[in-house]
Amino acid sequence: MPLERCQFCTARPREETAVLRWRADSDERERLTLWLCTRHLERMQRSGTRGWAHQGWLHKIGWW
Ligand SMILES: [Zn+2]
Hints:
By secondary structure, the protein is α+β, with helices and mostly antiparallel strands. About 15% of the residues lie in helices and about 40% in strands. It has one domain (about 15-60). The protein has one helix at about 40-45, and strands at about 15-20, 30-35, 50-55, 55-60. β3 and β4 form a beta hairpin. Zinc ion binds near residues 6, 9, 11 and 40.
């Protein structure tokens, strides 16, 4: 069952999205599937391969 809210805010999620999460200062990589609202989905899309920074992590859409 889908979550009622976005991973990063209280908005309703739009879609489940494959997200690669990493730290700028390490080789650690995590492949996650997150529910995102339109706003956060667009933020990640805009950040592209540089990644969207949030709470010490960088995030981009796609696992590759
Ligand atoms: Zn959101």
